[in-house]
Amino acid sequence: MNRITKLILLFSTSLFTFNSCQNNTTGELKEPAYHVDPSRSEPPYPVIALPPDADTTSPRWKGIDLSPKSPVVPVSPQEELKSFVLQPGYELTPVLTEPQIIEPAAIQFDGNGRMYVLELRTYMQDIDATDELMPVSRISRWEDTNQDGTYDKGVVFLDSLVFPRFVVPFGPNTILSMESNEDEVYKYTDTDGDGKADKKELFASGLGRSGNVEHQTSFLTWAMDNWMYSTYNAKRIRWTPEGVIQERSGHPHGQWGVTQDDYGLIWMQGGASGVPANFQFPIVYGNYDVKGQYEDGFRVPYSLVRLADFEPGMREVKPDGSLSNVTGAAGNDVFRGDRLPRELQGNYFYGEPVARIIRQVHSSKREGLTYIQNAHIENQSEFIQSTDPLFRPVDIATAPDGTMYIVDMYRGIIQEGTWTQDGSYLRTKIQQYQMDDIIRNGRIWRLTYDGMDRSKEQPRMFDEPSSTLVEHLSHPNGWWRDKAQQLLILRQDHSVVAQLEEMMLHDTNELARIHAIWTLEGLRALPLEQTVLLMQDASPMIRKQALRASESLYKYGQSSLENHYLKLLKDPDVNVVIQAMQTLSILDIDNTPNHVQEAMETRPEKGVQVVGDQLLKNHAENKKLKSSQFTKEELALYDAGKKIFDGFCATCHGKKGLGTPSGTGGQDIIAPAFSGSPNITGHPEYAAKVLLHGLTGAIDGREYESLMIAMDSNDDTYIASVISYIRNDFGNKASFVYPDYIAQVRAQTKNRKNPYPYAELIQEVPRPMPAQHIQRVTASSTALRGVGSTRDPRYAFSFKGWRTEQKQSPDSWYHITFPEPVRVAEIQFDSGKSEYPESFTILVSADGQHWETTAEDTGHPGTNTVAINSDSLVRHLKIKTNTNADTPWGMKNLIIYVREKSPV
């Protein structure tokens, strides 16, 4: 009987027998410390040898045990329960397991309490990460229909995904998600109520990155300040009724996990570092280096698994074979529920799946700075330990029922193929214990405490009136407060403004007051007078939150707040002083460096000194940044455009590009926001035609108070400067526009007499064709680009990229077939530093037989852009190289711009 057959039999007999299972809470280890195959009394265990080139004197290999070992085998959830060592009084219960879910990596709950599960079904299905980017992952949705505590009804909400990065519930029957090696976040909606998404809409761009799947964007999270944060992106994004806007932030040091505390402070979880990150201050204010923030001993894990199967090798192995230094962490949560002991509330938890532990983190505040420590270091223990090597905790969440949920991927390998290659230490240990084929499992556990039953209050927020959602802002479970705030903002229901103001000013629950502040901010209904009043509140936390929330008012033109910020630099509470310094800095208020310096001279607290020093350095570096970020010509356009914008355009579009408030309570804006606008950051023809000829009509279905007048009386440099500036400030990053391009558009549209109606303009401006809408892509040849990649030429449309197998020649080509005839306006691709085509031709065809040459060009490093001077409707486009060259030809981030109708 082979091993796979035995495992199937093992699961078939014990998978769902959960009765009479008991947790080991005594702290005593049961032998063996890992599960073995009982049918194997004698080896044919594999004999493992050192790789031929292994340096046995190096710390990685020195002392390694290569003797034959019994294979680790998976056990049922019932048996796994016996492996846990919990703190007294706690108990774990499975709520959802394989085979219903496979390779779960993250969970989220929607407003009706349904649980979405991110299933990474291609993660390390063998030791070489074969087919890791095949489109077979999914997002499933689960319900507990009979309130017995287990999830019994599930549906595949979204299927056929390429290693999805996150799931964000976003209102009734709607989620946000993004796939690996892509740059776009999409909104998926179930419109017919069958539980499966049938509508896909672009939500935001510019959040992706390429590379190893463990090093890409993850955990997009809606925070209390109504912005959304993710790992790896030095920006934050925000949904508004007019569209998604974005702003720059500090650089996240997290890898797999983003969460927030009761006061909206974002915590990110480092992966390879094994420690939390970005928890000193809101990341939007930048990065801070605080020496000693990890207390002595914090990096030492207390693991009960002693297989020495850790990527760093023997240098990170304790004498007993357990891990000596945290090396890989995933998933995090500040527990904010109400059905576990109070001492857990507000504590940070994360999984260390290499050590097979869940860590509880205590934080303390001293002189405005945060210091963290393992809550169980005195006992040289952890909050949860396991003796099962397959326990792989990768996410933790505060659940609607007030308890804690833990996502256990339950598998053999937990590090991606980059670290398990031939000759690696980790591969040697994985094969020694035969863990490479333990896949396609997954368990979600609920943590409870004796005498504290889970809440059986079923969320029904999608069906409740907004007034009831406001009441949830005072719920003792932070999940309820967060979800109610998010849904109120998505509804944009201003009928509850008076109710929110009453809560903000007079509620006895401080957390309810804080949520009311931010809900009003998200509704653009935060009143100036009351906000100033809150800056004088008896509670320093309310003063601090009012300060942060008021930044939106300042951005929308309430410059009188500056005097109140200066007053708070002298606040008796050090945390308020630090917040005032950060607010002045991020709003770029005049003389901020002088104000920060004065605060540092009068306040000796360490937090003031650390923050002040960093803010002054940031100010100096930002001055240098433009000169390094932009070429001399770009910087001239940027600076000229900023001067024009501040003196003229900001009147309607707002000083920070968010629009100037208008209407009752300032809930409308005079003109569209520029921040994150796809019209502004998309093809520059849109902005060029608007500035030259003006614009009328509703924009994306929304009417604005102000009419955009023609500015064609200004010269081409003036127009190019303004467009270049708005495409590269307010969180935007796009190509610069030059005077010769404006001259070209001016000449093409010289006969235009009236402003463009928006509906007409949007049809003739080039727009990118989504890669999934392209019918077929073929190429003369392809080559592998990194571990887990494929030969599919469609990767030219992603960060991953495509390239020829051979060096460039006149025989190299790339052929795109469109599903229906289109007008191709432009192509754009990135060839990196060296794989650009030395000379190439672009041809189009209606039938794939008769070809027309529409452009010829020479390539260069970086982004190549080629206009297609043809108004023909075509179904085929071919790019071919013309000459021999010593390098392959490669493309990534390929964009095909098309027009709906002729621009003439």
Automatic annotation (TrEMBL):
SUPFAM superfamilies: ARM repeat, Cytochrome c, Galactose-binding domain-like, Soluble quinoprotein glucose dehydrogenase. Residues 636-730 form the Cytochrome c domain. Coiled coil: none annotated. Keywords: Heme, Iron, Metal-binding. InterPro entries: 6-blade_b-propeller_TolB-like, ARM-like, ARM-type_fold, Cyt_c-like_dom, Cyt_c-like_dom_sf, DUF7133, FA58C, Galactose-bd-like_sf. GO terms for molecular function: electron transfer activity; heme binding; metal ion binding. Gene3D superfamilies: Cytochrome c-like domain (1.10.760.10), Galactose-binding domain-like (2.60.120.260), Leucine-rich Repeat Variant (1.25.10.10), TolB, C-terminal domain (2.120.10.30). This is Discoidin domain-containing protein. It comes from Membranihabitans marinus. The lineage of its organism: Bacteria, Pseudomonadati, Bacteroidota, Saprospiria, Saprospirales.
